[in-house]
Amino acid sequence: MAAAPNMEMKVNHLWRLALILPIIGFSLSFILHHATGHARVWLPFISETDHAGPEAWPFKIGLVSAGIVNILLSWRMWQMMKLQSQEIHWSTNASLYAGITCGVGAIGVASLRWTLYQEGHIAAALLVFIGGLTWGIFMDISSKKLGMDERGVKIRKIAIPLTAISLVSMTTAFRLGMYKSPDIHKTLDLDLARTEMLFSAAFEWILFAAFMMVLYSFKWDVTPLPLVPSETES
Question: Residue ranges per domain, the chain?
Answer without folding.
Answer: 5-220
